[in-house]
Design a protein that fits this description.
Elements lengths: L16 E4 L2 E5 L12 E5 L2 E4 L5 H11 L25 E5 L15 E5 L26 H11 L6 H9 L62 E7 L3 H4 L6 E2 L20 E5 L18 E5 L7 E2 L3 E2 L9
Parallel strand pairs: 3-8, 7-11
Antiparallel strand pairs: 1-4, 2-3, 4-12, 5-6, 7-9, 9-10
Bound molecules: calcium ion and copper (II) ion.
Length: 323
């Protein structure tokens, strides 16, 4: 831990970014979902990371300056989606809709709906708006959108390992980003789902959907909302930890799997998938206990949703993964 890479570089302080010292930590978990296993040693060089997820106000500034139009705001090219029904090619995004009665939890289309004209400005679709939510995390951003934002901001997106090291807040191997209990002293530490998903949201944590950034206690590094609120994009192509981790060695600055192997074998279009981290306001004990640093899910690069956002990092020029 005392090597050069863990030393905070001398540079101008970056507003609302936090220095994460490099180091070795236990990535993944053997005690939860199979895709998190095996837990394995990873070392990561130090980097700066945004204290908060990118907000609607931040994203609006970017769009104002660059004229960026998000993937969800564009009509899809039929050539990219052979055989797709025309209604699937209109500008649209994937929105969570609470079903009125108990549904089969094995079919996520019981609560995910592809809504025409849903996008970051209208997160619930036509008639909704972000006017009163400038400080909420931006959602409905696909991989192209977050890459464009990071390039504009002069930052990078984190690898899964960088993100997980930052999320753990210095508590190596802990179950949660704040320790071993979901609700220490009865306190809610992140915006998740309480009640029976997806039909009953008792919002004991105070929030039904997204919360403004920074409403819950920060982790040990002073980072907010690493867990819950919205999932966050990382740069890693999705692959099982077991296919990449080497039992004998500590992996240095891992960057994930191969693009070709990241696809869902059941997806005829073969859309590659990135790893997303941190869980969201939709993670519930009865359905998806992914409000933990080790949790991970694959996310198709072309797909934006109402519970997925991002934050950026900045790597000192000398680190080997800088690209
Ligand atoms: Ca909540
Ligand atoms: Cu979840």
């Amino acid at each position: 831990m005392a090597d050069a890479q863990s030393t905070r570089p001398d540079s101008q302080p970056v507003p609302d970014m936090v220095w994460i010292p490099g180091g070795t930590f236990l990535m993944g978990s053997d005690h939860h979902y199979p895709e998190e296993a095996p837990a394995h040693q990873v070392s990561v060089d130090g980097f700066w990371i945004d204290r908060y997820t990118v907000t609607n106000a931040d994203f609006a500034r970017f769009v104002h300056k660059t004229g960026h139009r998000t993937v969800a705001e564009r009509a899809a090219d039929p050539a990219d989606y052979p055989g797709a029904k025309p209604e699937m090619l209109v500008p649209a995004s994937t929105v969570f809709r609470q079903p009125p009665h108990r549904v089969d939890l094995r079919n996520h289309y019981n609560w995910w709906t592809y809504v025409p004209a849903a996008n970051w400005r209208c997160p619930q679709g036509p008639g909704s708006s972000i006017r009163k939510r400038p400080d909420h995390p931006v959602v409905h951003v696909a991989w192209d959108d977050v890459q464009a934002y990071a390039a504009w901001a002069g930052k990078h997106l984190p690898t899964e390992a960088e993100w997980e090291l930052a999320c753990r807040g210095g508590l190596d191997g802990a179950e949660f980003a704040w320790g071993e209990e979901l609700n220490p002293g009865g306190r809610w530490m992140a915006n998740t789902w309480q009640g029976e998903f997806p039909i009953q949201n008792t919002k004991q944590d105070g929030y039904q959907g997204t919360a403004p950034v920074g409403c819950f206690p920060p982790n040990g590094f002073g980072l907010y909302d690493m867990i819950g609120n919205v999932w966050e994009w990382t740069t890693d192509w999705y692959q099982a930890h077991g296919e990449l981790a080497d039992a004998c060695c500590t992996m240095a600055n891992p960057r994930g799997g191969a693009r070709q192997q990241s696809m869902d074998p059941n997806d005829p279009l073969g859309i590659p998938r990135k790893v997303m981290k941190g869980g969201s306001h939709l993670c519930a004990p009865n359905y998806c206990r992914r409000y933990r640093p080790a949790a991970r899910m694959p996310q198709a690069v072309d797909t934006a949703t109402s519970h997925l956002g991002f934050r950026c990092i900045l790597r000192p020029a000398r680190t080997s993964v800088d690209a």
